[in-house]
Amino acid sequence: MKTIKFNDLQLSPVCLGAMNFGTTTSEADAFNVLDAFIDAGGNFIDTSNNYAHWAGTGDESETCLGKWLASRKIRDKVVIATKVGFDRHGEGAGLKAAQIEYWCNESLRKLGIDTIDLYYAHTDDADTPQEETMAAFDKLVKAGKVRYLGASNYDTWRIADANALAKEQHLTPFTINQQRFTFLAERTEKPPKYIFNEYTSRERLRFLKNRNMPLVAYSSLAKGGYSDPNRLPSSYLFDDRWHVLQEMAKAKGVDPSALVVAWMTNLHRLPAFPQVIPLFASSSVEHFLSNLHGVDIPLSDEEMQTLTQA
Ligand SMILES: NC(=O)c1ccc[n+]([C@@H]2O[C@H](COP(=O)([O-])OP(=O)(O)OC[C@H]3O[C@@H](n4cnc5c(N)ncnc54)[C@H](OP(=O)(O)O)[C@@H]3O)[C@@H](O)[C@H]2O)c1
């Protein structure tokens, strides 16, 4: 699998989401998916300090990953991304210095590692001065507990502000953004269910391209809805784009979800698109490998245009 250079790391072109590992995805199933990802040449894995608190305590995903890392002894072969800032049963919400320090130590402990490769602010905290947040993150980088910083569910102007401040004060900037993005457009007649859960706009894509920041696209397979329409969330527009995708998938003899992965991993070839890294999850090795196959599907310039302009 070809890799993407991110600072001094080499990332697989897709990221495996571990959100449900240890809760709705059993530990055994999680280990199978993780092993299959590594065997296929993947290395980039996404978790958070609060996954999946709505189905458990919020410790399960990192704990499950920690057990897997310990049993496989492949710490140096994987890139671990985790996050801080969201609520978990009434604790943890916010990006104050003490919270960042506490939850980072907790993540390191649960994952059983010395350094987090990529640490995200999971959501913005408008009540804490950015000076405090960025200085706290920087302290972790200088202490060797974190390599790189990312922002998730941040408005673009807040990323720009944070990075301007980091530049001025010689602090570590955000160098990657994680946001919801997929092939289908979103219905715009009503706001998203959760305010943080903003869909990636064209403006965000241009911003990231301009700042040379990759977009890690979460919920990139629309919950499996491209392969099984019954799973498609009602928030997406079921329009021409859907039919163009299905027809091309049929003509090429590939699964529609895999075709979405192919489209996303090739978007950087087009003007006005940054590097996009689809982040997707599965409890099933079969589904996961079928989706991962997307990185090997060649797409001509014409096919990229057909999908993008649909
Ligand atoms: N930063 C944030 O705020 C944020 C928010 C949400 C998620 N995330 C991250 O993004 C990751 C992925 O998010 P997500 O779970 O929302 O999105 P997703 O990857 O788009 O959807 C996952 C769902 O797709 C189903 N699926 C996959 N392939 C399928 C196929 N071929 N046929 C039928 N169903 C299929 C899976 O079911 P099966 O298990 O049956 O395969 C699973 O239920 C998470 O694990 C997490 O790491 C981040």
**Highest CATH level, the class:** Alpha Beta
Quaternary state of this entry equals: single chain
Number of strands: 10
Uncertain residue ranges: none
Cofactors, ions and other ligands in the entry: NADP nicotinamide-adenine-dinucleotide phosphate
Q: List SSEs in N-to-C order.
A: EEEHEHEHEHEHEHEHHEHH
Q: Please tell me the total number of domains.
A: 1
**Alpha-carbon Rg, integer:** 19 Å
Q: How do the strands line up in the largest sheet?
A: 3-4-5-6-7-8-9-10
Distance between the amino and carboxyl termini: 28 Å
Compile the SSE list and pairings.
Layout lengths: L3 E3 L2 E3 L3 E3 L9 H13 L4 E3 L13 H13 L6 E6 L12 H15 L4 E6 L8 H13 L3 E7 L3 H13 L5 E7 L21 H10 L3 E4 L21 H13 L3 H11 L9 E5 L4 H8 L8 H9 L1
Parallel strand pairs: 3-4, 3-10, 4-5, 5-6, 6-7, 7-8, 8-9, 9-10
Antiparallel strand pairs: 1-2
Helix pairs in contact: 1-9, 3-4, 4-5, 7-10
Bound molecules: NADP nicotinamide-adenine-dinucleotide phosphate (NAP).
What does this protein structure show overall?
With 310 residues, the protein is of the alpha/beta class. The protein has a single domain, classed as Alpha-Beta Barrel (TIM Barrel). 38% of the residues lie in helices and 15% in strands. It has 10 helices and 10 strands. It has helices at residues 27-39, 60-72, 97-111, 130-142, 156-168, 202-211, 240-252, 256-266, 285-292, 301-309, and strands at 4-6, 9-11, 15-17, 44-46, 79-84, 116-121, 146-152, 174-180, 215-218, 276-280. The strands form 2 sheets. The protein has an 8-stranded parallel β-barrel, surrounded by 4 helices. A two-stranded antiparallel sheet has the order 1-2. Helix 1 runs parallel beside helix 9 (285-292), helix 3 (97-111) runs parallel beside helix 4 and helix 7 (240-252) packs antiparallel against helix 10. The radius of gyration is 19 Å and the shape is globular. The relative contact order is 0.12. NADP nicotinamide-adenine-dinucleotide phosphate is lined by residues 17-19, 46, 152-153, 178, 218-224, 227-228, 231, 257, 279-284, 287, 290-291.
